[in-house]
Each structure stands twice: as C-alpha cells, then as structure tokens.
Design goal:
Helix content: 55-70%
Structural class: mainly alpha
Oligomer: single chain
Number of strands: 4
Number of domains: 3
Distance between the termini: 52 Å
Strand content: 5-15%
Shape: globular
Order of helices and strands: HHHHHHHHHHHHHHHEHEHHEHE
C-alpha cells in the first residue's frame, strides 16, 4: 500500500525534476564521462606516490567541469604540497574556503601542517573571512537548514523513550513526509549538491538529509531514488561513491561498495593453524568469478566508479595514510567470529587480499 501511495504522491515533483534535469543537462557536462575517470587516475597515482602525475590528472578533471568536488580540491592541494607548487596549494585552498570548509578543520589536517608557519598561510588565514562571506552569499544556507531539519525529524522519536518499538507508526509517517519534502526540494532546486548547499565545516561525505534516502529500503517497499541519484552523479551534484552507497543502502542496486572484509577469531587458539581457514591477519574480499566481476565493473563504470580491483587498492591505500581524503564509509566490514566454526562459515566465500 505504501509503495502505491508514494507513486501517486510524488508524480508531480518528479515531472518537475525531469524537466529540471533536462534543462540542466543542456548546459552541464557529463561528469561520469569527463570528470570521474580523471579523478580515478589521480587517486591511483596518489597510491603510487606519483604526485606530479596525480596533480596533472586533477588539473585535467578541474578544467573539464564548472564545479569540481571539494574532496578533490583538498587532495589536489595536499598533492601540490608534495610537488612544491605553492601557487596551486593556495588556489585549491581558496576553492575549499568558497565551498564552506572551516579554517580550523583545515589547520588540523596533516597535509597542511607544514604550511602553517609561512607568510603565505598567514595571508590565507587573514583572507579567510572574506572567502567565508562569499561562500555564505553564494550557497543556499536556508535550504541547507531546512534539509538538516529532516535529519532532526528522523531522529526525534528514535531517540525518545521506547524508540522504534513504541513509535513505529509515527516514524513511518515522518519518513514518508520527509521523502515528500526532499522530492519537492529536488524538483525546485535540483539535487542539493555541495555547490548549492556547501560541504559543511568538515567537508562531509554525505549531508544529513541523506538519512531520508537511506530509510527508503526495498525491503520496506520504500521510494526508489535510483534514477535521481544516477542523474545527480551525471550532473556533478553527487559523488559516485556516495550515490553507490545510498543505492546499496536502499537495496535497489549493487556496486560492491564493501570492498574488504576483516574477520577476527574470538578464540584465537582454536583458529591457529586450521587449514580450513584463510590467513585471518589479512584483509579478505568476496570470491567472485571473472564473469561476476566483469558484470559488476560494467555497472560501476557506468556510474563513474573505478573497477573493483582499483577500488580495493584505493581502500587499502586509505588505511596506510593520513593526508588524503579517500574515505569510503562501508568499504570494510569487520566481524568477530565467536568460534572457529563461525570463522569458517564467515570466510567460506572469501579469499585473502595481498596488501602490497
């Protein structure tokens, strides 16, 4: 019943959305085709410590679109600290300020620590209030506040006494109303990407309103945001990893956003030297056939993602460093097996991954 209700309820906002998407597409490049492939190459270069190569790919990506992502400006700025290109460092830092990144947050980042005793950095700090003023004038902070309210609405009765057990019916109504509000906002403004509402003080991976999408699961016959998310990626309003994460949370698509698995044996002595178990000191991955991996790769590439093998390499690299923003929430699943038998079951369809 709820699924049918949603279909009728959201017909008008979706017609507006399709109209907006068509108009926007006429003026905007396809980020999946011209932006994200270059960003992927830049990040793979970072993993190889080829900072000059990475910076070249970042510049290629930035030149291809009107509004690059804050995460990529951040990584390019850190990359420029390694190549000594001071002009580029502060060019990209200024871009981050205009996206809404907080100065204190940037000062805490390891990649920018070496800069902070220089005259250039002090000048950047003095100019920061002007950048922030431009940011506040440019983005729609009222819309951001309205969308943040959706998260507060979602959480209120969940945090109340009794939580979901007591307030289930009320929560379902709130979730449906939140979807209506979000769809109306998308119909009016397009998907609320970082150029519309900023990135938050800490260059957030997903804004708070994403909880509205996460709640609409296939299991609960929720509203399917797949087409909206895919179009948002194409328009440069949403990063492909964030879109894939949300679609998998909903249960409507599969991109294998969980790249690695780590299993710990709760009874180590039982698990030692058992030939039925892989090496539990290593990360593992799902044991896919070549045909299965090829099919997943085709789907990933169609959204602007990298191939699975490249994704795993980047996730492993992200664990070894603290400078670059290569965070992929949900990319690693951690399990504690209570016994040897449980560990055998958990690892039955997994194979170890060598971290070179």
């Amino acid at each position: 019943m709820r699924h049918v209700f949603c279909k009728g309820l959201f017909k008008w906002p979706l017609l507006l959305l399709l109209c907006f998407s068509y108009t926007y597409a006429l003026a905007s490049p396809d980020y999946i085709a011209v932006y994200h492939p270059a960003i992927n190459q830049a990040e793979l270069s970072l993993a190889q410590k080829d900072y000059e190569g990475a910076l070249s790919f970042y510049q290629e990506a930035f030149a291809a679109v009107p509004a690059p992502f804050a995460k990529d400006y951040f990584n390019a700025a850190v990359c420029a600290t390694h190549t000594g290109e001071e002009k580029l460092i502060y060019k990209y830092l200024e871009k981050l300020a205009l996206k809404g990144a907080d100065l204190e947050y940037l000062k805490r980042q390891k990649g920018f620590k070496p800069l902070q005793e220089s005259k250039k950095w002090r000048k950047f700090e003095r100019k920061y209030p002007k950048h922030q003023k431009k940011y506040r004038e440019r983005v729609n902070l009222d819309l951001r506040a309205d969308l943040d309210e959706l998260y507060a609405r979602d959480q209120y009765f969940r945090q109340a006494k009794g939580g979901l057990r007591v307030h289930a019916d009320t929560l379902r109504k709130i979730e449906a109303a939140n979807v209506t509000i979000l769809l109306n906002a998308i119909a009016q403004y397009g998907y609320p990407g970082e150029d519309l509402i900023g990135v938050g003080d800490t260059i957030e991976w997903l804004p708070r309103f994403a909880i509205v999408i996460e709640r609409q699961t296939r299991y609960m016959r929720g509203y399917d945001f797949t087409e909206i998310l895919q179009e948002a990626v194409r328009q440069g309003r949403l990063a492909p990893h964030a879109a894939a994460y949300l679609m998998e949370k909903q249960g409507f698509s599969e991109y294998k956003t969980r790249a690695l698995v780590k299993v710990t044996c709760g009874k180590p002595k039982e698990c030692e030297d058992d030939k039925k178990l892989p090496d539990l000191s290593k990360f593992m991955k799902e044991d896919l056939s070549e045909a299965q991996e090829q099919k997943i790769n085709e789907q990933r590439l169609s959204l602007g993602l990298e191939r699975l093998s490249e994704y795993r390499d980047k996730v492993l690299f992200s664990l070894r460093q603290q400078e670059f923003k290569l965070n992929y929430p949900g990319a690693i699943a951690y399990y504690i097996a209570p016994s040897k038998e449980a560990a055998i079951v958990l690892t039955e369809r997994l194979v170890t991954v060598e971290d070179d």
